[in-house]
Amino acid sequence: MAVTSALPGTASRTDRRELVASAAVLTWVPLVLGIDSRVSAGSQVILGVATWLLLIMLLRRESGLTRAQVVVVVLFATAVEYTFSAWLGVYRYRHGGVAAYVPPGHGLVYLCALDLGRSTLFRAHRRAVLAAALTGCGGYAAWGLLLADRTDVLGAFWFGCLAAFCWKGKQPLVYAGAFVVVTYLELLGTRLGCWTWSLHDPTGWIPIGNPPSGAAGGYGWFDAAALAFAPALVARWERRREPVSE
């Protein structure tokens, strides 16, 4: 019979490593946004390079599948950024365009959500974590709809997405982790003026908060894309590495 249990201390070391990586991302977010709120557009390139380096460093400890998932999320999220920000203007960055640190930043946010979701802390308190995430996001969405200065219908819609992914998705604790890091990111970014959300969507029919309350719901779609396409990327890479038989 195969032995499947981890060696003594292995699980705790892995968990510490994941929580340290999450802490690194949660520390990097205010550092980059704080700098971005004070520097010129040209300096964003430096922030972008530094963010890429951090992402690459953190991915070195990950499996090939996780790396592929992050690649898919970065590609998918970057396409969303250029569509909804640069083109449609649903939100605008301080210097226009898409800030250089944003594409790798999406990779860091997703990796942080993954690390939180698979940590012993989250898994040991699964029901409490999910209940806290849904209650927190639901309360935030209700505030955005009923009490905020700017009515936030988009945030309520995204809360519905988050709730659906937590209920039926393959990685509910990852979505709970996304609620923590994305809400933190959005509140900081808008408060510091690094980006600003428009009053309405491009049709003018859907009011949007600044930031929208349930923004973490969008990461459920990013994760769905990662789960759908990453295995094919890994398989393709492994086929390319196979020696060619004569």
Q: What does this entry look like structurally?
A:
- The chain is globular.
- A two-stranded antiparallel sheet has the order 1-2.
- The chain has helices spanning 10-36, 44-59, 64-87, 102-118, 120-124, 126-146, 153-168, 172-191, 217-241, and strands at 91-93, 195-197.
- It has one domain (17-232).
- The protein is 70% helix and 2% strand.
- It is mainly alpha-helical and 246 residues long.
Q: What fraction, in percent, of the residue positions are helical?
A: 55-70%
* Order of helix and strand elements from N to C terminus: HHHEHHHHHEH
Strand order of the largest sheet: 1-2
Please give the alpha-carbon distance between the first and last residues.
Answer: 38 Å
Task: Specify Rg, calculated over alpha carbons.
Answer: 19 Å
The class by helix and strand makeup works out as mainly alpha
**How many beta-strand runs?**
2
Mean pLDDT: 92
Which percent range describes the beta-strand content? under 5%
Number of helices: 9
Count of domain modules: 1
Q: What is the general shape? A: globular
Largest sheet: number of strands, sense, barrel closure: 2 strands, antiparallel
Poorly predicted runs: 1-10
Fold blueprint:
Blueprint: H1 10-36, H2 44-59, H3 64-87, E1 91-93, H4 102-118, H5 120-124, H6 126-146, H7 153-168, H8 172-191, E2 195-197, H9 217-241
Antiparallel strand pairs: 1-2
Helix pairs in contact: 1-2, 1-4, 1-8, 2-4, 3-4, 3-9, 4-8, 6-7, 6-8, 7-8, 7-9
